[in-house]
């Protein structure tokens, strides 16, 4: 935008004069209007407010100045409706420009002749109708008109005065006089500038009540509007109060400023409606030249657009500017009616450019981003058509200069608009979130979202437009180079006819003349094209880098360097190319097609700039490319360097394969995936030449291979006198033992084009570790130069095969692993054999474990060993492991010396484990050979123990009849003296089905029930078990275990239930007859009633009649109450009985009764029993016993043998067959 007059492109802001707060020189940023004899001068005599509060007030007012803010509606903080202003602090005396031009002087009339009357209508000093105007008689606009409204005609004057108390009445009267003087001068000036007055006082009205009277007097004397014309500012202590006062003041005065520019708009609209034509006399005086009606329409459309910008109504301004462009380019417009060689045509074209710039700016302001791009593209196409039809065409340097300027203007407008989406991150290195948030282009606005928009019609960030300007400038330079030498000479040395011919052959619109565009010779060697390209490339790179588009930034830098090379500016081009070359890579997608041109250009610039290091490095890389200068030559690299860089000093440089190419590739593969300390492992190093040298041989001076264990192997070049055809492809080099940290060997390292050389050698390692190739380095050089090229592990050539020589030919041998750059070095393998004897597949809870460890020395000599045992795994229960040795301590035992091929045994004891689990322990044997006591060897044996429960039991429990007589209710004391426990005895039975879960066959030697715990005041006696003999129990087999016990309370009157906790104790051994193991199985806690009545049934055979059976029912009442029961014996088809069928019994407390029934079985062939060894018959008598009071039926229990209870059928009695 710098090519256009500054007032044309300046953003319009309401101009506000601040009078009385001091004048700031930096605020006078525009050239004043030409001095006019007429005009209005405002002069006041009041003192200037210069105290600290006034300066703070001025600073707050200047914060609302929008001259340096972004060109968008959100640049000014505060309410949405607030405007931006151009604040201009001025002195007490200032001038306003004249509104009308001075009348033309009248010529004196001759005697006797009458003077025709002259037209006396006056116009603006900048109107095409005023003879003194710079655009008289047929111009449209002048930058001075924009300057007048931007800097000389304010919309508002805010005057600041100090008011005082009674003692300063004269000063207060002076304030009244100055206010009236300002109002009178503004009224005479003809402008509708508003005036507002701010009265400053160092005292408040509360402190000085007389101030209110003075202010009222000033208001009456000046007739100022109390709402918008006169303001009072009391003393304020904080800056926040002053800022609030300023915002309130500007919010109140904003409508006045908007109304000022709205009045100007109305005035321009009225003049446009009148047609704007001058009088006939005026036309005659101008010699027939006058501004056309189309020109007047353009003038007033521009005026209305500018005044709309002052009001910041950008949509309205955009419509007026668009109408002005259409009027200029219409068939009657100046661009179509004026000749293209005239100054009027150039001025109209410049004005059209400015209006189009303002159209784009307005659209960016209101957020029409895609519309702004479309307007930019359309105007460019319209201008191109205009220049093709009426100008010099679009093949001149002038057109490309305009095209570059138009693209740069778009970038500058976007940059000044500061669109939020285009603002880069403040972080030095943007994160992934920041890169996603930064937009490179904006989507179409909602109004155009449904239309088909081309990608280039979407608004891109400024860097895109600077690239377009760069490309147009490159084309401009190409056209400038085509200028003939005759036109490039200075006009002082050229005939006038030739100079006149230049103006008809070249388009110089906003462009230099041919002798200035590309002078002959260049003045001081300066090329302004390169300066423009440098500036545009720098701005584009800055925009691309700020948005993380580093590759685009590098691309434009590379293009700039290419232009510098064309202009033979090699040193400056090299400064740009070296950073690109150092950070570029041929594998990068950006440089995939550009790396060779970049390398070739860097090499050429280094050669011309005498940068020997860069020249050597690039020459080394260029050996990898076909078509380079080296590939076309038969010279060796040494001869080429000496010819191109004749330097007396030795050239030295270092490169890395991560960034730069090498004509020699290195690969190294280990022949084994694993090896051991002290053993040799084969390695194969391959050198592959990718050199493009023709017949020349590439000689590598030295190859270094560094490993991660700190070792380095070097292969030095040794010339081989044999011919290349007789030279073997695979060379075997000496072995390198593990004791050497640096080793060097010699071999022939000369390489022909596309030749591969293989070198075999063996390495030994001293420590166990994973050894990898750290890097490999190629050294090339002689007495003239030295080059070192380093390959990291990631840049080495990978190969999953090694080559073996077979009958003079190299054959591929594929390795069965992928990582051939590493070898795992294992510790020296121990030859000590460890065997665990006595280990079973499964162990059981409560079993003590004893194992025997045997150590067999398989080494070549005797050893001295120490064994350590420790628990492993994640088990919660710890293992108690001991060595069966007297000198064992903390799990460690000294084995001592073991001779060659001898063995040593040691026993391990593990205490019984109480819970089932999977346990494991390891035995670590550390030993050393007698000849190498400082070299420790280790052997580990891990043993797992599966611990499980050997048995599980299912229990059945029931009462039995206790045959001892109960104590008498009427003679308790006598009975109580005979026994210690006075409670009633209760007999119980506990049956268990013992099942084996063991994998092995176990021998059960005994199974007893023991008492673990009983409730208070309870006695429990367990009868001796009848389990006899040894029973072999296999897996899932079951054996019954029966036991009885008797309980009684200590006191007869204790009615609380009894709680008994029992355990089943099983003593067993393994089948082999090992040590006996005791296993306890807990019995679920038993809740035994003590005071509840119960019915027990027993059976006896009748001695008098063997066909009868005596059935006895025992009714027990252990309570302290009399109980009455109703008994009913139900008849059955299976037997007959003798006894009462229905009966009622009353039982005294603490007593027991027995009822006898004789049964005779009808048919002994039915219901033959199969559950008892007596093989008897089972009958099912039904006896109902009901408590008469509670109506509760008592269950009949089995009281002894030959009686059982079934859950479904009830009580069963066995009758002998």
From TrEMBL:
Domain Gryzun putative trafficking through Golgi: 657-1215
Biased composition (Polar residues): 37-48
Region (Disordered): 26-50, 94-133
Basic and acidic residues composition-biased segments: 110-122
UniProt superkingdom: Eukaryota
Residue span(s) of domain Trafficking protein particle complex subunit: 345-624
Short name of one Pfam family: Gryzun
Matches recorded under InterPro entries: Gryzun, TPC11
Protein name: Trafficking protein particle complex subunit 11 domain-containing protein
Provenance organism: Hortaea werneckii (Black yeast)
Signal peptide: none
């Amino acid at each position: 935008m710098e090519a256009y007059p500054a007032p044309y492109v300046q953003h319009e802001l309401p101009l506000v004069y601040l009078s009385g707060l001091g004048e700031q020189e930096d605020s006078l940023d525009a050239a004043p209007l030409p001095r006019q004899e007429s005009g209005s001068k405002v002069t006041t005599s009041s003192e200037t407010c210069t105290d600290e509060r006034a300066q703070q007030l001025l600073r707050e007012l200047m914060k609302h100045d929008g001259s340096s803010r972004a060109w968008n509606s959100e640049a000014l903080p505060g309410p949405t409706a607030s405007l931006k202003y151009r604040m201009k602090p001025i002195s007490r005396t200032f001038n306003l420009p004249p509104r009308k031009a001075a009348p033309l002087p009248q010529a004196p009339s001759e005697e006797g002749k009458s003077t025709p009357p002259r037209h006396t209508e006056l116009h603006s000093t900048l109107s095409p109708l005023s003879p003194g105007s710079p655009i008289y008689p047929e111009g449209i606009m002048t930058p001075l008109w924009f300057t007048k409204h931007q800097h000389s005609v304010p919309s508002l004057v805010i005057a600041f005065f100090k008011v005082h108390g009674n003692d300063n009445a004269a000063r207060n009267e002076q304030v009244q006089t100055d206010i009236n003087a300002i109002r009178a001068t503004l009224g005479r000036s003809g402008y509708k500038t508003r005036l507002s007055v701010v009265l400053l006082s160092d005292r408040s009205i509360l402190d000085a009540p007389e101030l209110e009277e003075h202010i009222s007097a000033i208001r009456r004397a000046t007739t100022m509007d109390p709402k918008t014309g006169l303001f009072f500012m009391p003393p304020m202590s904080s800056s926040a109060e002053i800022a609030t006062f300023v915002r309130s003041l500007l919010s109140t005065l904003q409508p006045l400023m908007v109304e000022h520019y709205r009045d100007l708009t109305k005035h321009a609209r009225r003049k446009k409606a009148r047609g704007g034509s001058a009088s006939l006399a005026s036309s005659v005086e101008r010699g027939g030249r006058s501004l056309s009606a189309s020109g007047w329409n353009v003038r007033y459309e521009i005026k209305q657009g500018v005044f709309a910008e002052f009001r910041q109504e950008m949509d309205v301004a955009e419509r007026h500017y668009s109408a002005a462009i259409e009027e200029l380019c219409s068939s009657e417009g100046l661009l179509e009616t004026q000749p293209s060689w005239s100054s009027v045509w150039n001025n109209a074209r410049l004005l059209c450019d400015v209006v189009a710039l303002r159209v784009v700016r307005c659209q960016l302001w209101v957020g029409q981003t895609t519309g702004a791009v479309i307007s930019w593209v359309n105007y460019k196409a319209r201008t191109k058509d205009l220049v093709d039809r009426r100008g010099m065409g679009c093949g001149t340097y002038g057109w490309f200069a305009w095209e570059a300027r138009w693209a740069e203007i778009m970038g500058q407008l976007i940059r000044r608009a500061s669109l939020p989406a285009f603002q880069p991150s403040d972080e030095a290195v943007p994160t992934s979130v920041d890169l996603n948030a930064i937009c490179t282009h904006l989507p179409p606005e909602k109004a155009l979202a449904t239309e088909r928009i081309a990608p280039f019609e979407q608004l891109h960030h400024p860097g895109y437009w600077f690239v377009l300007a760069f490309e147009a400038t490159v084309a401009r330079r190409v056209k400038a180079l085509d200028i003939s030498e005759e036109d490039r000479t200075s006009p002082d040395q050229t005939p006038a006819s030739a100079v006149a011919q230049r103006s008809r052959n070249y388009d110089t619109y906003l462009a230099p003349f041919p002798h200035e565009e590309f002078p002959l010779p260049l003045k001081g060697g300066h090329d302004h094209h390169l300066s423009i390209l440098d500036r545009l490339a720098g701005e584009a790179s800055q925009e691309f880098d700020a948005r993380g588009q580093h590759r685009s930034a590098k691309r434009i830098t590379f293009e700039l360097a290419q232009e510098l090379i064309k202009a033979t500016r090699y040193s400056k081009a090299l400064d740009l190319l070296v950073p690109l070359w150092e950070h570029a890579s041929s594998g990068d997608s950006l440089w995939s097609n550009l790396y060779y041109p970049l390398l070739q250009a860097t090499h050429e610039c280094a050669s011309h700039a005498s940068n020997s290091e860069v020249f050597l490095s690039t020459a080394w890389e260029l050996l990898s490319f076909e078509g380079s200068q080296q590939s076309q030559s038969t010279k060796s690299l040494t001869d080429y360097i000496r010819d191109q860089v004749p330097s007396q000093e030795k050239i030295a440089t270092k490169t890395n394969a991560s960034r730069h190419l090498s004509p020699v590739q290195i690969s190294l593969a280990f022949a084994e995936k694993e090896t051991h300390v002290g053993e040799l492992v084969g390695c194969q190093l391959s050198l592959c030449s990718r050199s493009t040298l023709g017949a020349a041989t590439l000689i590598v001076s030295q190859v270094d291979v560094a490993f991660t264990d700190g070792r380095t192997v070097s292969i030095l070049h040794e010339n081989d006198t044999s011919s290349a055809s007789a030279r073997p492809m695979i060379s075997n080099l000496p072995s390198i033992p593990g004791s050497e940290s640096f080793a060097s060997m010699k071999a022939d390292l000369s390489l022909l084009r596309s030749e591969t050389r293989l070198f075999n050698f063996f390495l030994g390692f001293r420590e166990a570790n994973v050894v990898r190739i750290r890097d490999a380095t190629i050294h090339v050089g002689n007495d003239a130069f030295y080059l070192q090229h380093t390959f990291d592990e990631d840049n080495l050539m990978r190969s999953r095969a090694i080559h073996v020589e077979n009958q003079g030919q190299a054959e591929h041998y594929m390795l069965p692993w992928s990582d051939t750059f590493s070898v795992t070095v294992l510790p020296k393998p121990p030859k000590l054999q460890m065997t665990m004897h006595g280990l079973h597949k499964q162990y059981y809870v409560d079993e003590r474990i004893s194992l025997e460890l045997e150590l067999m020395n398989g080494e070549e000599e005797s050893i001295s060993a120490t064994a350590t045992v420790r628990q492993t795994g994640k088990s919660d229960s710890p293992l108690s492991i001991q060595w069966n040795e007297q000198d064992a301590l903390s799990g460690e035992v000294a084995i001592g010396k073991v001779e060659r091929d001898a063995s040593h045994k040691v026993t391990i004891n593990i205490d019984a484990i109480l819970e089932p689990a999977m346990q494991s322990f390891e035995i670590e044997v550390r030993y050393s050979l007698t000849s190498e006591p400082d070299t420790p060897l280790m052997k580990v044996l891990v043993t797992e123990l599966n611990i499980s429960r050997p048995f599980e039991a299912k229990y059945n429990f029931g009462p039995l009849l206790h045959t001892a007589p109960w104590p008498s209710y009427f003679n308790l004391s006598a009975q109580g003296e005979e026994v210690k426990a006075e409670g009633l005895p209760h007999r119980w039975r506990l049956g268990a089905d013992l099942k084996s879960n063991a994998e092995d066959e176990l021998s059960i030697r005994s199974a007893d029930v023991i008492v673990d715990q009983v409730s208070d005041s309870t006695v429990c006696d367990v009868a001796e078990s009848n389990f006899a003999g040894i029973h072999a129990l296999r897996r899932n087999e079951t054996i019954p275990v029966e036991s009885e016990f008797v309980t009684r309370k200590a006191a007869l009157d204790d009615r609380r239930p009894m709680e008994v906790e029992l355990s089943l104790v099983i003593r067993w051994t393994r089948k082999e007859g090992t040590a006996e193991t005791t296993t306890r199985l807990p019995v679920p806690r038993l809740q035994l009633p003590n005071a509840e009545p119960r019915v027990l049934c027993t059976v006896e055979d009748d001695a008098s009649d063997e066909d009868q059976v005596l059935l006895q029912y025992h009714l027990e009442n252990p309570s302290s109450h009399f109980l009455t029961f109703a008994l009913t014996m139900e008849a059955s088809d299976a037997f007959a009985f003798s006894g009462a069928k229905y009966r009622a019994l009353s039982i005294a407390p603490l007593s027991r009764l027995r009822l006898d029934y004789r049964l005779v079985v009808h048919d002994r062939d039915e219901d033959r029993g199969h559950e008892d060894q007596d093989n008897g018959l089972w009958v099912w008598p039904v006896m109902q016993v009901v408590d008469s009071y509670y109506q509760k039926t008592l269950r009949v229990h089995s009281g002894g043998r030959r009686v059982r209870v079934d859950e479904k059928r009830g009580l069963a009695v066995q009758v002998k067959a």
